[in-house]
Design a protein that fits this description.
InterPro entries: Cys_Synth/Cystath_Beta-Synth, TrpB-like_PALP, TrpB-like_PALP_sf. Pfam families: PALP (PF00291). Keywords: Pyridoxal phosphate. Residues 23-305 form the Tryptophan synthase beta chain-like PALP domain. This protein has helices at 3-18, 53-66, 83-95, 109-117, 132-143, 150-160, 165-172, 186-197, 214-220, 258-270, 278-296, 321-326, 335-338; strands at 26-28, 37-43, 76-78, 99-103, 121-124, 146-147, 177-181, 203-208, 252-255, 301-307. The protein is of the alpha/beta class and 342 residues long. It has two domains: 19-50 and 163-338, Rossmann fold; 53-155, Rossmann fold (3-Layer(aba) Sandwich). The strands form two sheets. The chain has a six-stranded mixed sheet with strand order 1-2-10-7-8-9, with helices on both faces. It binds pyridoxal-5'-phosphate (PLP). Residues 52, 180-188, 235-236, 279-280, 283, 306, 308 line the site of pyridoxal-5'-phosphate.
Length: 342
């Protein structure tokens, strides 16, 4: 292909991606707002594939196109089974690019279906989850394609690209705290950078799941801290510190017991009318902790947090009592607290 045609494909592709980012709503969560402290939820389920991870893939595609790694006909590969694979399939479909997700062995039929519906393909990983990235990169090599590595590159791509979730939130309000989770680290880093760049007084808290490396890494200041344990809360918590995690941008890390994340997710769905995922449960648990602290200090204001994904995909897992019991994940001790925002 001539340089001209390559350039015009890239220009058209970037314009098409740019057009695909509706601002998501920031809604007051009435059931959580009390005593002069309002809780607002940025509802990322309104994104085209229903998940916050859509923003990551959008930034990764835009970055890969801008840097010349993805062009007309490039076969794009990701190595993950959840919301990242669905968003990747959607964007590849939009640009007319072949797409394959290397999915973990236990990926459910719902996700596989959604990948196919967007025109993507999937194949089961042959190596253990810790080697997923190498397997994806090797497949992309064999296909002469490009591996989108969201753990290695999502933060860099977001930092290089256009507006982030932070632009949308702070265009509407300046809360006392913003509470987010950490998977790749890209979301919290985008928020932290925005706060500094615009000299805002809002403080950034992140929540971390039980066996994750982020809380101990932040407390000890050891950037290479590793637990080697997979997270039981999809989308947040990692066995090791990923390159996107920027501890210096974070004011507070709140460790959240996994049972508390599940209890808060259930409270959100059953009582607050919020179709939340387990990671959103962790966000709400963290927000509740800060709301209490604000009330005790007599501080009025708001807390913004994120609903990253709907609960639908967790019907047979985190929303299923038998599944929880088999994994020793017990929300019961946290239920009363999860609903106590007074
Ligand atoms: C609900 C939820 N899931 C997942 C994440 C992880 O995002 P990232 O991969 O950018 O660290 C976040 C971050 O805010 C979140 O709020």
């Amino acid at each position: 292909m001539s340089a001209d045609r390559t350039g015009s494909w890239a220009g058209d592709a970037l314009a098409r991606i740019q057009a695909e980012l509706p601002a998501t709503p920031l809604r007051a969560l009435a059931a959580a707002s009390a005593g002069g402290v309002d809780v607002l939820v940025k509802d990322e389920t309104a994104l085209p594939t229903g998940s916050l991870k859509y923003r990551h893939l959008r930034a990764l595609f835009a970055h890969a196109i801008t840097t010349g790694h993805v062009g007309a006909g490039t076969h794009v590969v990701v190595a993950t089974g959840g919301a990242v694979a669905v968003a990747g399939a959607y964007l590849a479909g939009l640009l007319g690019l072949p797409f394959t997700a290397v999915v973990p062995a236990r990926t459910g039929p719902d996700v596989l279906d959604r990948i196919e519906r967007h025109g993507g393909r999937w194949r089961r990983a042959e190596l253990p989850p810790a080697a997923g990235q190498q397997e994806g990169a090797a497949l992309a090599d064999r296909l002469g394609g490009h591996f989108l590595d969201h753990f290695a590159d999502a933060d860099r791509a977001m930092a290089a690209g256009g507006p982030t979730l932070a632009d949308e939130v702070f265009a509407e309000t300046t809360p006392e705290w913003i509470v987010v989770g950490v998977g790749t680290g890209a979301t919290s880093a985008a928020v932290g950078r925005y706060l500094r760049r615009h000299r805002l007084p809002t403080r950034l808290a992140v929540v971390d799941s039980e066996s994750s490396a982020y809380f101990p890494a932040w407390v000890t200041g050891a950037p290479d801290y590793a637990t080697g344990m997979p997270s039981r809360i999809p989308g947040i918590g990692r066995p090791r510190v990923e390159p996107g995690f920027q501890p210096d941008l974070i004011d507070l890390v709140i460790p959240v017991p996994d049972g508390a994340s599940v209890a808060a997710m259930r409270w959100a769905r059953d009582t607050a009318g919020l179709d939340a995922c387990p990671a959103t449960g962790a966000n709400l648990w963290g927000a509740r902790h800060l709301a209490r602290r604000m009330r005790e200090n007599g501080t009025n204001g708001s807390i913004v947090t994120i609903n990253g994904d709907s609960g639908e995909a967790y019907r047979n897992t985190h929303l299923d009592a038998e599944w929880l019991r088999a994994r020793g994940l017990d929300p019961t001790p946290f239920e009363a607290e999860a609903g106590d925002w007074g």
